[in-house]
Amino acid sequence: MLTKRIIPCLDIKDGRTVKGTNFVNLRDAGDPVELGAIYAEQGADELVFLDITATVDNRKTLIDLVRNVARNVNIPFTVGGGISSIEDVSALLNAGADKVSINSSAVRRPELINELALQFGSQCIIVAIDTRFIVTENGISEHIVHTHGGRKPTALRTLAWAKEVEERGAGEILLTSMDTDGTKAGFANELTAEISSNSSIPIIASGGAGTMEHFNEVFTVGKADAGLAASIFHFKEIDIIELKEYLREKGIPVRL
Amino acid sequence: MKTVIIKYNAGNVQSVMYALDRIGVNYLWTDDEAEIRSADKVIFPGVGEASTAMAYLREKGLDKVIPSLKQPVLGTCVGMQLMCKHSEENDTTCMGIFDINVKRFDSSNFKVPHVGWNNIYNLKSKLTEGLKENAFMYFVHSYYAEISAYTVAECDYVQPFSAMLHKENFYAAQFHTEISGKEGQRIIENFLKV
């Protein structure tokens, strides 16, 4: 049976993980390669590396990092942040990334999704959607796609954009709710379920994980195919193996 | 031992190379017939679309070379599908090493592609020696090879399908051995020992 995936996300700046970590067994808490390998060992199903600097100077550092991760990690991993062209994707895949995640560049120029899917195959193209529930100009509260780390609203409605990226050839959607992100109060289950039910590609839910129960909810109520989180894994508030054992007891199929 | 990875236009094989590096195996990445024929082990990976890949193999004459190889050959993902007779992906005639068809998953009740970790069972291959029944492997595909006499491992998504195939010196896996954790690595190691 196809299992639900648990995906730790590592924020990268200048080739180092940014948020501190609470792993006592790490030699170097800032080393993404070592952290990635430990997560893989602990049963993470995939990894996401998000480059939050994403300046031209840092691309080479990022490529070196990707190469090192690929050499040392034997599970799939995705790289995101600042990707806006076929050349960017080509460099990351050639360095050993299994998938890339694009966000603002797809909003700016949606044809990029088609071009990347045609060139590299849908299986390695994730479109990340940052969404926030806001009152729009016409006075209606709606889920609206945001860019710039969730600060800048676009004209796109989240549900319509999710459908569009699928039609353009995205292989998966990484849906981050800016309303729940950082709250540790649970994922945006209602919105995730709505998008997942209307979509034939997998949905990775992100934003709001605080407890193991939240993962159970995002898979049952939220109908997500994968759950992504950062700090709760870095600070060992939740252990991946314990989380998977908990989910298995709840009847969620997991890889253990 | 000489290990060759067949070079063609089917996507990124960097992960396969790194997986061999982790095992400590030297390899050559080539489309040269003489190099391929002189190898002890041949790996035929693949990420991509069937008709484009077959067109390239024909252009290079590799569609005739691969089925005539006598040493152990391991095809993975699209590589495995190209070793079958026909693929529904753009109605493609494939190499026919395995006399079976590759069909598209019915997407009426399931998400397609099949993405993620799924368990493989009814393990009957030399390559799965040391693995437990229901070991998890990483899959990404929209097309599947039907169950047949060549099936040596099964997986279930929409319906049971062939996770692994075997016939004489030809071995094949639908999943990505190179990123399927320790169990995936075990399959590569077993292949290199065949």
Automatic annotation (TrEMBL), chain A:
Task: Mention any one GO cellular component term assigned to this protein in its UniProt record.
Answer: cytoplasm
> Which pathway does the record list?
Amino-acid biosynthesis; L-histidine biosynthesis; L-histidine from 5-phospho-alpha-D-ribose 1-diphosphate: step 5/9
User: According to the lineage, what is the superkingdom?
Assistant: Bacteria
Q: Which GO terms describe its molecular function?
A: imidazoleglycerol-phosphate synthase activity; lyase activity
Tell me if Cytoplasm is a UniProt keyword of this record. Answer: yes
Q: Where is the active site?
A: 11, 130
Output the Gene3D superfamilies linked to this UniProt entry: Aldolase class I (3.20.20.70)
Q: Which UniProt keywords apply?
A: Amino-acid biosynthesis, Cytoplasm, Histidine biosynthesis, Lyase
| Coiled-coil features, chain-numbered ranges | none
Task: Give a yes or no for keyword Cytoplasm in this entry.
Answer: yes
GO annotations under biological process? L-histidine biosynthetic process
Question: Cross-referenced Pfam families, in alphabetical order?
Answer: His_biosynth (PF00977)
- State its location(s): Cytoplasm
Catalytic reactions on record: 5-[(5-phospho-1-deoxy-D-ribulos-1-ylimino)methylamino]-1-(5-phospho-beta-D-ribosyl)imidazole-4-carboxamide + L-glutamine = D-erythro-1-(imidazol-4-yl)glycerol 3-phosphate + 5-amino-1-(5-phospho-beta-D-ribosyl)imidazole-4-carboxamide + L-glutamate + H(+)
**EC number in record:** 4.3.2.10
> Subunit structure, briefly?
Heterodimer of HisH and HisF.
Q: Which family does it belong to?
A: Belongs to the HisA/HisF family.
Under which name does UniProt file this protein? Imidazole glycerol phosphate synthase subunit HisF
**What species is given as this protein's source?**
Arcicella rosea
TrEMBL record, chain B:
Q: What is this protein called?
A: Imidazole glycerol phosphate synthase subunit HisH
Catalyzed chemical reaction(s): L-glutamine + H2O = L-glutamate + NH4(+); 5-[(5-phospho-1-deoxy-D-ribulos-1-ylimino)methylamino]-1-(5-phospho-beta-D-ribosyl)imidazole-4-carboxamide + L-glutamine = D-erythro-1-(imidazol-4-yl)glycerol 3-phosphate + 5-amino-1-(5-phospho-beta-D-ribosyl)imidazole-4-carboxamide + L-glutamate + H(+)
Q: Which UniProt keywords apply?
A: Amino-acid biosynthesis, Cytoplasm, Glutamine amidotransferase, Glycosyltransferase, Histidine biosynthesis, Hydrolase, Lyase, Transferase
User: Where is the protein found, in the record's own terms?
Assistant: Cytoplasm
* Pfam families associated with the record: GATase
> Which residues participate directly in catalysis?
77, 176, 178
The EC number(s) this enzyme carries: 4.3.2.10, 3.5.1.2
Q: Which GO terms describe its molecular function?
A: glutaminase activity; imidazoleglycerol-phosphate synthase activity; lyase activity
Q: Please state the pathway this protein functions in, per its UniProt record.
A: Amino-acid biosynthesis; L-histidine biosynthesis; L-histidine from 5-phospho-alpha-D-ribose 1-diphosphate: step 5/9
Gene name of the encoded protein = hisH
**So which domain of life are we looking at?**
Bacteria
Domain Glutamine amidotransferase, by residue range, is: 10-192
Under the subunit heading, UniProt states: Heterodimer of HisH and HisF.
Query: GO terms for CC?
Result: cytoplasm
Question: What this chain does, per the record?
Answer: IGPS catalyzes the conversion of PRFAR and glutamine to IGP, AICAR and glutamate. The HisH subunit catalyzes the hydrolysis of glutamine to glutamate and ammonia as part of the synthesis of IGP and AICAR. The resulting ammonia molecule is channeled to the active site of HisF.
Q: Name one GO biological process term.
A: L-histidine biosynthetic process
| Record PROSITE patterns | GATASE_TYPE_1 (PS51273)
